[in-house]
């Protein structure tokens, strides 16, 4: 086996070529890792909003709460379905909620965006224990006070502690609290008293969805049968986790697909770059290779040595690219979610899996780019090489 | 032999390396063009928009509708030539759960004259106007779901309960690139009569054509002033601003794509620069000889930059040759069929091709900067003596 130090020194002596090749690989890995991180962030944001023991009921045919209309009269029937958990007093754990969007002015960027406004019952926190008030205080039930999600706060005009905005014409509401659910899509919403919102948006007698807590996740099938068998209701029941997976599908596929296509083509480009470098290395070091062979190193050792050099080059580039991409963890990416047509703030989520994938990808680029030059090196005839 | 042809002939010395470099550059150009096409297709929605159309909708939110009497008021306003209206229906074909398409309830008498870039054959139009349950569908949608004129289709809506029966009376084709060819339109009266009295006589939005496209913003503002004191205030935008504000919701995505485009160009420059630097290093001795027989440092630099520039252009051309079938026959066709609502026209465009070629040449020249500068600064004695 040829010592790895030989490869390290060979790379060090041709600085500019090494930097150019590793730099190309670093940029590719950066793009790949960033898009994977964003896709992971999207999944996290939309995925953590759901709990396995919760179910959501929508109008049959709706994918999102926004386009769903459920008659108020159906709500007690849903809450009475089998499997719904009850508290000590026998009251079912669940409620109908109203979701609308409003056009609001984006701060720092010219333009208007859609913000999700959720009309919630007074005991919204009882149903979502992960939500905490992190600034201000909880709004008084039935009042014109509202709370805003931690991520949307300060990004939209009027959506910060102590500010007010118009729910509709001449219907101002005051932001008195900021809630945080740990990065889920709720953090990009405004929570308003359900009756206040219904009145302002003429949604009397209807809700967008009914959410219930089940006695256990295994009770879902029974609950679903109870809700969906009554064809007159025309409703469908989904596990909350399934519902949010569907919600994130659009964005996650879009980001993932575009990221993969771009990374794939770029990877081929950078791999070719590595190939050019390694072919040149083999051509320039004919004499060295001949000497190595004459010293008794086998063809396999020479092959391995050049492969190691290519992988080394790629790993250096990959490590730099991956390290740079973790800086994206501080970036907040705000865009409209296709399913809810409202602004959701995503983060880049540098999971260990993403970093590992990026590094494996870099190693793969090194191997593929290095294999043909290494084969050529191994085929070098020692005699002719030394004489060259 | 001219100086230029010498530069070009130098390229032929290591054909294999040059071929690899061209392949590498071509790959990066393909991705670059793909992203440019996405950005361009996105942005051009605003440019293709009709200059003389104004969209009037609810001021605060698109989930609320306008009273139908607003249509008459708009029609009688100054500068308005004609007006029509539509409601979002949110349809889904239960047989094709995954297919997303826009379904609108429209006024059959006026919709296709306001949107005159949607062409319906006269006989089909006649049937549609007199058929309460009639529908006109886009040609792309009809092909995708296998619908033919005369077919009966059953749709469901997340907003309006029940099964909705329609008859396909006609298929529209597009005479402008901005038209989504996957929309399903049907009679507004059919929808309205099926609703409970409390929800009747509301329209989603009003579209009007004006006689003076130059003053379209003023005309919109006049309309809004008319409704300012009413219970439901409006927001009127010309189609161009409307599309632009829609795009602004995705501005973060466009920004990200611009960043990636820049990264791609960086990778391309590194690949080119690496190849040129290698060639220069191998030929240092020759440059020494050329200098010794009287060529100036400028000549040497010119050869190197010229060689790189030509390499960039050839790589760019190869990239365009690959991107053409990839985008126009592959990705573009898929996107137009499946994401027609956002990208009705997704093709490689002349301006982007020119941009890619210009950048390939420019960055090719720039990539040679450091090697050229170094080679021209070299003292003749050192150059001649130097071993590659």
What would you say this structure looks like, in words?
The complex is a heterodimer of chains A (388) and B (388). By secondary structure, chain A is of the alpha+beta class. Chain A folds into two domains: 4-47 and 247-387, no CATH class; 61-233, no CATH class. Chain A has eleven helices and 14 strands. Chain A has helices at residues 4-13, 15-47, 75-79, 124-127, 194-200, 220-228, 240-284, 286-294, 299-326, 352-379, 382-387; strands at 54-59, 70-71, 94-105, 112-120, 132-136, 145-149, 164-168, 171-180, 189-193, 206-207, 209-213, 235-239, 332-337, 342-347. In chain A, strands 1, 3, 4, 5, 6, 7, 8, 9, 11 and 12 form a ten-stranded mixed sheet that branches. The two termini of chain A are 24 Å apart. The model of chain A has no long low-confidence stretch (mean pLDDT 87). With 388 residues, chain B is α+β, with helices and mostly antiparallel strands. In chain B, strands 1, 3, 4, 5, 6, 7, 8, 9, 10, 12 and 13 form an eleven-stranded mixed sheet that branches. A two-stranded antiparallel ribbon of chain B has the order 2-11. Chain B is elongated and about 95 Å long. The two termini of chain B are 26 Å apart. Chain B folds into two domains: 3-45 and 251-385, no CATH class; 53-211, no CATH class. At the A-B interface, helix 2, strand 3, strand 4, strand 7 and helix 7 of A face helix 2 and helix 10 of B.
Roughly how much helix do the residues of chain B carry, as a percent range? 55-70%
Q: N-to-C terminal Cα separation of chain A, in Å?
A: 24 Å
Number of domains of chain B: 2
Which percent band covers the strand fraction of chain A? 15-25%
- Rounded to the nearest angstrom, the radius of gyration of chain B is 30 Å
Spans of chain B of at least 5 consecutive residues whose pLDDT stays below 50 are none
N-to-C CA distance of chain B: 26 Å
Computed structural class of chain B: alpha+beta
Number of strands of chain B: 13
Mean pLDDT of chain A: 87
Q: What is the number of helices of chain A?
A: 11
- Nearest-integer average pLDDT of chain B: 87
Give the CA-based shape of chain B.
elongated
**Protein chain pair with the most extensive contact, residues per chain:** A-B, 61 and 58 residues
Output the number of helix runs of chain B: 15
């Amino acid at each position: 086996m040829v010592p790895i130090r030989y490869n390290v020194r060979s790379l060090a002596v041709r600085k500019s070529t090494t930097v150019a090749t590793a730099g190309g690989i670093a940029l590719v890995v950066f793009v790949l890792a960033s898009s994977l991180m964003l896709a992971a962030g999207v999944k996290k944001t939309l995925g953590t909003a759901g709990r396995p023991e919760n179910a959501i009921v929508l109008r049959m045919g709706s994918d999102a709460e926004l386009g769903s209309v459920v008659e108020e009269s159906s709500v007690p029937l849903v809450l009475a379905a089998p499997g719904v958990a009850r508290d000590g007093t026998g009251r079912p754990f669940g409620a109908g909620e109203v979701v609308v969007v409003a056009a609001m002015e984006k701060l720092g960027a010219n333009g208007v965006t859609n913000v999700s406004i959720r009309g919630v019952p007074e005991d919204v926190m009882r149903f979502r224990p992960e939500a905490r008030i992190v600034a201000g205080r909880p709004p008084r039930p039935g009042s014109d006070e509202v709370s805003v999600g931690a991520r949307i706060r300060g990004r939209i005009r009027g959506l910060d502690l102590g500010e007010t905005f118009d729910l509709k014409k001449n219907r101002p509401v005051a932001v008195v609290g900021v809630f945080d659910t740990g990065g889920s899509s709720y953090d990009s919403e405004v929570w308003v008293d359900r009756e206040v919102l219904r009145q302002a948006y003429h949604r009397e007698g209807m809700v967008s969805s009914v959410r219930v807590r089940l006695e256990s996740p295994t009770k879902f099938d029974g609950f679903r049968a109870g809700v969906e068998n009554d064809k007159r209701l025309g409703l469908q029941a989904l596990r909350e986790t399934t519902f949010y997976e569907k919600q994130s599908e659009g964005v996650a596929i879009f980001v993932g697909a575009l990221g993969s296509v771009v990374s794939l083509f770029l990877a081929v480009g950078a791999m070719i770059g590595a190939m050019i470098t390694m072919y040149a290395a083999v051509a320039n070091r004919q004499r060295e290779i001949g000497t190595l062979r004459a010293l008794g190193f086998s063809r396999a050792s020479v092959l391995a040595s050049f492969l190691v050099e290519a992988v080394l080059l790629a790993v250096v580039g990959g490590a730099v690219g991956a390290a740079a991409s973790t800086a994206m963890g501080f970036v907040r990416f705000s865009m409209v979610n296709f399913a809810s047509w409202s602004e959701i703030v995503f983060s880049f989520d540098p999971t260990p899996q993403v970093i590992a994938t990026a590094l494996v990808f870099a190693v793969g680029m090194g191997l593929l780019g290095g294999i043909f030059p290494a084969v050529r090196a191994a085929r070098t005839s020692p005699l002719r090489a030394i004489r060259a | 032999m001219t100086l230029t042809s010498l530069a070009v002939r130098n390229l032929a010395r290591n054909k294999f390396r040059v071929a690899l470099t061209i392949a590498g550059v071509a790959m990066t150009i393909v991705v670059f063009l793909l992203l440019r096409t996405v950005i361009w297709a996105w942005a051009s929605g605003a440019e293709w928009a009709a200059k003389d159309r104004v969209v009037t909708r609810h001021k605060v939110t698109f989930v609320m509708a306008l009273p139908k009497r607003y249509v008459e008021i708009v029609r009688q306003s100054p500068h308005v030539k004609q007006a029509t209206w539509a409601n979002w229906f949110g349809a889904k074909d239960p047989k094709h759960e995954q297919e997303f398409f826009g379904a609108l309830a429209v006024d059959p008498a006026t919709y296709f004259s306001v949107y005159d870039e949607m062409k319906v054959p006269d006989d089909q139009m006649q049937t549609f106007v007199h058929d309460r349950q009639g529908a006109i569908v886009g040609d792309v949608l009809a092909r995708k779901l296998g619908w033919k004129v005369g077919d009966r289709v059953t749709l469901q809506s997340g907003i309006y309960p029940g099964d909705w029966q329609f008859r396909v009376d006609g298929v529209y084709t597009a005479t402008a690139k901005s038209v989504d060819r996957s929309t399903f339109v049907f009679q507004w009266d059919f929808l309205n009569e099926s609703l409970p009295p409390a929800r009747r006589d509301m329209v989603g939005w009003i579209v009007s054509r004006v006689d003076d496209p130059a003053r379209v913003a003023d005309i919109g503002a006049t309309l809004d002033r008319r409704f300012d004191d009413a219970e439901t205030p409006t927001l009127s935008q010309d189609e161009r601003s409307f599309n632009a504000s829609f795009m602004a919701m995705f501005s973060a995505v466009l920004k990200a794509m611009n960043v990636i485009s820049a990264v791609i160009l960086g990778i391309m420059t590194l690949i080119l620069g690496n190849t040129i630097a290698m060639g220069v290093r191998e030929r240092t001795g020759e440059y020494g000889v050329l200098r010794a027989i009287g060529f100036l440092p400028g000549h040497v630099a010119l050869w190197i930059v010229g060689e790189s520039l030509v390499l960039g252009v050839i790589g760019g051309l190869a990239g365009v040759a690959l991107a053409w079938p990839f985008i126009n026959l592959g990705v573009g066709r898929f996107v137009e069929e499946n994401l027609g609502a956002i990208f009705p026209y997704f093709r490689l465009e002349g301006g982007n091709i020119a941009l890619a070629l210009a950048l390939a040449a420019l960055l090719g020249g720039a990539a040679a900067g450091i090697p050229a500068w170094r080679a021209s600064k070299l003292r003749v004695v050192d150059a001649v003596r130097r071993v590659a």
